[in-house]
Design brief:
single chain, 2 domains, 45% helix, globular, alpha/beta, 6 strands, 199 residues, Rossmann fold, six-stranded parallel beta sheet
Length: 199
C-alpha cells in the first residue's frame, strides 16, 4: 500500500544527533532525556540542557545555549533529498519530542517546510504518549490506518506506539538506532524514497 501520509521522528532519524553530541556518553544522555520526558512536562530545550548538565557536567548556561539550537545539528546526508522526493508522493510531517523553535531550525536546514510539525511543546506530552499521534491525526486530517506510515530509527518506543495504533511502521537503520518490530525496514531515507516511488 502506498502511503497517504508519512510522519517522521526527527532527532536520530532526520537529524544526526549522535554526530552532534559525539559517542562519549551518548546513550546515557538519550536515556536521561527519556526519563525526564516521562516526568512533569517541560520544554525539550530544558530537558536537553538538564541532560547535558547531569551527564557531561556542563555549566547550565553553556548547556542551555546548546539545547536552544539542537535544530541546527546536522542532518543525515540523505535527509534533505529523500524528504523532498517523499513529499512528491504524500504529505510529510514531523512528530517529534522537541519544541517549535527546533522545527524552524530543522526546516531552515532542509530548505523547505514540512507539511506539519507536531511537537511535544504543542501537545505538552512526549512520545511514546499517543497524544502526539492523536494531534497529528487531527492536524493532518488522517485517521489511524495502514496508509499512514510512521518512520523512525527507534522501534523500541516510537514505532511500538505507531504499530499499536494500526499505522505502518518503518524502521530506519541509523548507526545508533534501537531495533524492534517494524512492518518495513530500510537502510536510510533514500532507500525509503526509492521504495515509495516504486510502489
Amino acid at each position: 500500500m502506498k502511503p497517504l501520509l508519512l510522519t517522521f521522528d526527527i532527532f536520530g532519524t532526520v537529524v544526526d544527533w549522535r554526530a552532534a553530541l559525539g559517542d562519549r556518553d551518548f546513550d546515557r544522555i538519550v536515556d536521561v532525556q527519556g526519563d525526564l520526558e516521562q516526568q512533569r512536562f517541560r520544554p525539550y530545550t530544558e530537558i536537553v540542557a538538564e541532560s547535558l548538565v547531569r551527564v557531561r557536567r556542563l555549566d547550565p548556561v553553556t548547556a542551555a545555549g546548546i539545547a536552544a539550537n539542537v535544530g541546527k545539528w546536522q542532518l543525515f546526508p540523505d535527509s534533505r533529498d529523500a524528504l523532498r522526493r517523499l513529499r512528491r508522493v504524500a504529505p510529510c510531517a514531523a512528530t517529534t519530542n522537541s519544541d517549535r523553535a527546533h522545527g524552524e531550525q530543522v526546516q531552515e536546514q532542509l530548505g523547505f517546510a514540512l507539511d506539519g510539525w507536531i511537537c511535544a511543546e504543542e501537545v505538552r506530552a512526549y512520545k511514546p504518549d499517543r497524544r502526539i499521534w492523536e494531534a497529528a491525526s487531527r492536524k493532518m486530517g488522517r485517521p489511524f490506518d495502514r496508509a499512514w506510515w510512521h518512520v523512525s530509527a527507534y522501534a523500541d518506543y516510537d514505532l511500538r506506539t505507531a504499530r499499536d495504533l494500526g499505522l505502518t511502521s518503518v524502521f530506519v537503520q541509523r548507526p545508533h538506532s534501537r531495533a524492534g518490530l517494524a512492518d518495513v525496514t530500510v537502510s536510510d531515507l533514500t532507500a525509503l524514497a526509492e521504495l515509495v516511488e516504486a510502489g
